[in-house]
Amino acid sequence: MNNFDQIKNALQRIRHFNDLPDEIQQGIAASATHRHFDTGQVIYVEGEPAESIYILEAGWVKATRMTRDGREQAMMFLHPVEVFGDIAVFTGTTYPGTVVALEDVDVWVIPAKTILDLIPRHPDLAMAVIRHLGGRVLHYISLVEDLSLRSVEARLANTLLRNAEVQDGQLIVPRREWTTFDEMAVRLGTVRDVLSRALKTLEAEGLLRVEKQAIILLDPKGLAEHGNL
Amino acid sequence: MTQELHPASDEILRKTLLARFAADNRTAYANLRVGVLNGIAHLAGVVASIETRILAAELAEEVTGVRGVVNRIEAPGAPSPTRTVNLNLQNKKGNSNE
Fold this sequence. Notes:
The structure holds two protein chains of two kinds. Chain A is an alpha+beta fold. Chain A has helices spanning 3-11, 22-31, 86-91, 112-118, 123-149, 152-162, 181-188, 192-204, 220-226; strands at 33-37, 42-44, 52-58, 61-66, 72-78, 82-84, 98-101, 105-111, 165-167, 170-174, 208-210, 214-217. Chain A has a four-stranded antiparallel β-sheet. The mean pLDDT of chain A is 91. By secondary structure, chain B is of the alpha+beta class. Chain B has one domain (1-98). Chain B has two helices and three strands. Chain B has a three-stranded mixed β-sheet. The model of chain B has no long low-confidence stretch (mean pLDDT 85).
């Protein structure tokens, strides 16, 4: 496949961008470059000038932001296919968070100027961007609600339920969804010690069991009640 | 998520750090990437040794106005850039995540 086909294929897998006319897709493809990042590599850091928008084609990335008191807070975990880096480009600021590859990642890098030049001429693209940014606003409203109104236990219960899958008749959260307790703590906006206590509390109540490679959700209904769902 | 409080000083700090890395022949070759937000410097890129990685953080910490350094520079033997970073901003010096 050439660039155009690959970009078109990627765009068609992104909500709001999947029905853009060929002309726009061609415009995006003409300036897009492919990049690969190995696990752990930094795609961009917070405070860098926002010069590109990224389309995540393969792999999983994490966006975090350092709080003023020096604690890392997860903003988003993105799976393919997704757009990221766009908020800073459209607001004319530096990137608000740091994005790192959690596994081998393939992205398309689109110069900010390409998108900013295309938008005034193509209302379809402008609407797609507005809808996408609207989705981001809803995500951050949910994050604010989580961090300000819910306890760590409730956030933990919600996160576990959101990332659970059925394996061998059990509802589990596989290790790849959290990797380490530190990683999970970042995701929940807390620190490892507090997370450990929350896990122990939920485990003592018979709601879950922590194993080496997975967390087994023994009582999803009870967890949902804990999560104020 | 505020980003308007000190944008000018963050940008000045970023330029200062880039100039500092470019002027030092131990770091100049690496074209390190730098972002500064709320006075915290975020470093990325690849260097040849862990000593250079540490040096880059030290150079950044010495810049007046830098409250802390998040060192995500790749180097042989260095921790993964994804690892959890906790800065102790009470201790101005020596607060990189080594």
